[in-house]
């Protein structure tokens, strides 16, 4: 074997072992992927490093009971407030049963319509009863959602009505407001999400009358049908 043949074979082996060059398209794709990952990291830091309360801060629109409160996403009004010591509910088989409380059930009759897209109220970010001293009460879980406004679609062009039922102590009634909140995502920050805060007209005297005239029993089944 000559020296020339050995050199030729060595050159061929080196050529086979030489890694292929990356094309321009692959380099561009890798660069774009890097930018996307960096942007995702920045987004995650901005959205997940803040608390749930910060991610769900709202623009507040205010009104009084009987008034129409209009926001960019929905329009709502509280029609009336009733108090009761017992209400009814249903189970999955639609069997009706009575539930009572040692406190009060406040039943707020609410009507709402959507500006653009239909939605349903969410238990993750529900409407709340806000007291004069800043306490917030979610709608009671003693009552089936099928009997309340949670069961209604709030749609553009139509008014949907239903009750929101809160279980509260008597000292929560004076000065109470309804804060109506549409469903929001716990993951995505929306600095412009609207809420409607409605004064229920429960001044000292009005609150006293509501409490003293609370019904022993208020049927929700007949009201929802």
UniProtKB/TrEMBL annotation:
Start-end of Basic residues biased regions: 11-23
InterPro entries, per database record: DUF4352, Immunoprotect_excell_Ig-like
Organism, scientific name: Microbispora hainanensis
Keyword Calcium: no
Record lineage: Bacteria, Bacillati, Actinomycetota, Actinomycetes, Streptosporangiales
Keywords tagged on the record: Signal
Residues in DUF4352 domain copies: 65-182
Pfam families, per the entry: DUF4352
Name this protein carries in UniProt: DUF4352 domain-containing protein
Annotated region (Disordered), positions in chain: 1-23
